[in-house]
Specification:
heterodimer, A: 522 residues, alpha/beta, Glutaredoxin, Rossmann fold, Ubiquitin-like (UB roll), 4 domains, five-stranded mixed sheet, 22 helices, 15% strand, B: 175 residues, alpha+beta, Arc Repressor Mutant, subunit A, four-stranded mixed sheet, 4 strands
């Protein structure tokens, strides 16, 4: 009898709740019983409330058990042993993984392999349609590759949603012998972890996407700017890059094409602002991460002053499937001008948090209740912050907004990088507004005054407003300050911090009129 | 008068470096390994902090000299980024997430508990030198908060009790 295949995720989130201990316990228990097993450390399926999730493969099909603690290893292997060719029965069983509704209802394009393959194995990647996008790209001219990306309707997934094809076309057309591909892996928005999951769970897809970008624009060098908070992603990427070099997918002659593409990982050092593209470029150049004036666009004068494609992890990771399956295939998902799929990240006070990749167009309510199952605390949902710390807090009355860039912009909210953070009815929204200003003060790069000083003044004004000190005048002042920040800031940090502040003020005004101090977070 | 104005003012030698021989060697090695790459300063600072545990003031002048930058430029970069430390920390660094997703499941209470039980504020090191407590703005574990990271190990669903257990194991390991 061949070895039983057992999958336990090596994703940092799974490890944060004990996946390593569970994997060790399973290995030890199997050894004790003399049971032949093959333990595979895969990426996470994204069903994070079930982590540590263990999958047992029976007759070629994977069955989910979770959350499995080390103490459950003995009973799980006992069940496996007793079942023979049947599916092992166990109180933690959830049936075939692919049939779990949370997963089954998704449309996984970018995340097609995450949780399925061994992220350290190039063979596994190739066996699951890996590098088919690159192969297709190698048969096209640069202009044809750019045309495919443009036709797919892919927009930058980092938050700003700028059409990727147009950016690439600008770099392709820019004069210059040296061009760069830069991946923004400085995923700093609270409530987001899709970049991390791709990099840890399927690092080759990012490498492939960046290589295609290099072919499309004539760039022969790429950098992945990764935040230091993701040490597991660094290990996964560096291992994958080594494997790709060894197999001729990176280096001076990519798959015999005669085209060169080199790639390396650079670590950030804990600055939220470095997720802003020009500040990221400054940081890559070895400087303080201060925002640059635009123009010139990075596409014309980016890294070291050279034409540079700078895109988010998910943007690059979506490119291989577009090249492989065609622009029309990708474009047929979505609504309006938001084409394809968006990997949403459901987080915060939610029962079933995780990664949900669906076509644009689903409503927030469907995500929160059908997928999320309400709050973790069991209390009613009071507010939801979408799009990270610069995104608006949305009340129940806005939950029917479809997940679409324009629909969100229309109600002065933003979809951003697709992070959804749930708060129950114990949340103090005045404290959240204050935190938004405080965060801006901590993370401001200091270049422009509305952001650098406005944020500190914002904290003070909110404190006075909440303490009831001439409240009506304070509110006028706060709104005025927010307007100055919105229109007077150089980049999105100062420009969008008013979003969470004003949305709290507009939708949860009652939290600002009370006697108790809002300084709980101080 | 004229003679006086031509008087050579001797350049004041810098005070002797407080770096140990080993530390100085580590800084020079980081510079030698890293300085040929474009945009070398951040990778070099990472290497120095990894080797020494922080970026000492005297490493700044040494790095500046090696990279042909001014001390102000290097100092500016070191102090811009939250991750770089300019003072020695504890044996372990605990980064506690303060961001919204963790707030929604009790990060504020956990922060209060952590500060009280360790007896330090953010950036402080416990009296026994075991733990330095630092704030961090998102660890990417937003569906399993409250989150923290001990050195490079991420932890999720950290209750105050679980926090105490984690700290206890750090202290036990430190002895």
């Amino acid at each position: 009898m061949s070895a039983f295949k057992i999958y336990v995720s090596r994703d940092a989130a799974a490890r944060s709740v004990g996946a390593d201990a569970t994997a060790n316990a399973i290995a030890a228990e199997a050894a004790r019983r003399g049971l032949q097993i093959e333990l595979i450390r895969n990426g996470s399926r994204g069903l994070l409330w079930l982590e540590p999730l263990v999958e047992l493969e029976v007759a070629g099909r994977r069955h989910a058990y979770g959350p499995v603690q080390p103490r459950d290893a003995a009973s799980l292997l006992e069940a496996l042993h007793a079942a023979g060719d049947r599916v092992p029965e166990h109180p933690l069983a959830h049936g075939p993984t692919e049939e779990i509704p949370y997963l089954k209802r998704q449309q996984r394009l970018t995340f097609a392999r995450v949780g399925i393959t061994d992220p350290r194995s190039l063979e596994d990647y190739l066996a699951h349609d890996g590098y088919r996008g690159l192969r297709a790209a190698l048969a096209l001219t640069p202009a044809q590759i750019v045309e495919q990306v443009t036709a797919s309707g892919l927009r930058g997934r980092g938050g700003a949603a700028f059409p990727a094809g147009i950016k690439w076309k600008t770099v392709l057309g820019a004069p210059g012998l040296q061009k760069y591909i830069v991946c923004n892996a400085d995923e700093g928005d609270s409530g987001t972890f899709s970049d991390r999951m791709v990099m840890e769970g399927d690092p080759f897809v990012l490498i492939e996407g960046m290589t295609v970008a290099g072919l499309a624009t004539g760039a022969d060098r790429g950098y992945i700017y990764l935040r230091w908070e993701y040490p597991d992603a660094r290990l996964a990427l560096e291992a994958a890059i080594r494997a790709a070099y060894a197999a001729g997918y990176l280096g001076e002659n990519v798959q015999g094409s005669g085209r060169r593409f080199d790639l390396e990982v650079r670590m950030g050092a804990g600055a939220y602002i470095c997720g802003e593209e020009t500040s990221l470029l400054e940081s890559l150049e070895g400087k303080r991460g201060q925002v640059r004036f635009k123009p010139p666009l990075p596409a014309l004068a980016g890294l070291f002053g050279k034409p540079t494609v700078i895109n988010n992890v998910i943007t690059f990771a979506s490119v291989p499937i577009i090249l492989d399956r065609g622009a029309d295939f990708y474009k047929n998902f979505g609504m309006g001008r938001s084409r394809g799929t968006l990997p949403l990240q459901l987080a915060g006070n939610v029962k079933h948090g995780g990664l949900i990749e669906v076509a644009f167009g689903m409503t927030l309510r469907e995500i929160l209740y059908d997928y999320g199952g309400g709050t973790l605390s069991g209390r009613p949902i009071r507010a939801v912050q979408v799009g990270g710390p610069l995104g608006a807090y949305m009340p129940e009355s806005q939950f029917d907004t479809p997940l679409d860039y324009e629909a969100f912009a229309g109600i002065k909210a933003m979809l951003g990088h697709g992070g959804i953070v749930v708060f129950d009815d114990t949340a103090d929204m005045a404290a959240q507004a204050r935190y938004a200003m405080e965060f801006c003060a901590i993370e401001s790069c200091g270049k422009c005054t509305p952001c650098r000083i406005g944020s500190t003044r914002g904290v003070e004004v909110i404190d006075r407003l909440v303490s009831g000190e001439n409240a009506a005048a304070q509110e006028v002042l706060l709104r005025d300050l927010c307007e100055t920040m919105t229109y007077g800031s150089l980049c999105a940090l100062g420009g969008l911090t008013p979003y969470p502040v004003i949305s709290c003020l507009n939708h949860f005004a009652e939290d600002f009129v009370k006697t108790k101090s809002a300084q709980a977070s101080a | 008068m004229a003679k006086d104005s031509r008087r050579v003012i001797p350049i004041k030698l810098e005070r002797p470096s407080s770096l140990s021989g080993e530390e100085q060697a580590a800084v020079l090695r980081a510079c030698a390994d890293g300085k040929e790459q474009p945009g070398a300063l951040l990778p070099i600072l990472h290497a120095v902090q990894e080797a020494i545990g922080f970026v000492p003031a005297d490493a700044v002048s040494l790095i500046a000299q090696q990279l042909n930058l001014s001390r102000a430029e290097v100092h500016g970069v070191v102090t811009f980024y939250h991750y770089f430390r300019t003072r020695r920390g504890g044996k372990h660094v605990v980064h506690l997430c303060r961001a919204e997703a963790c707030q929604s499941v009790g990060a504020v209470a956990l922060e209060r508990h952590a500060k009280r039980s360790l007896g330090v504020d953010f950036h402080g090191t416990t009296a026994d030198g075991t733990v330095t407590l630092e704030p961090v703005y998102c660890l990417g574990n937003c569906a399993l908060g409250p989150a923290l990271m001990i050195d490079e190990q991420l932890q999720g669903r950290v209750s105050p009790e679980h926090f105490d257990e984690l700290m206890q194991s750090l202290r036990a390991g430190a002895r």
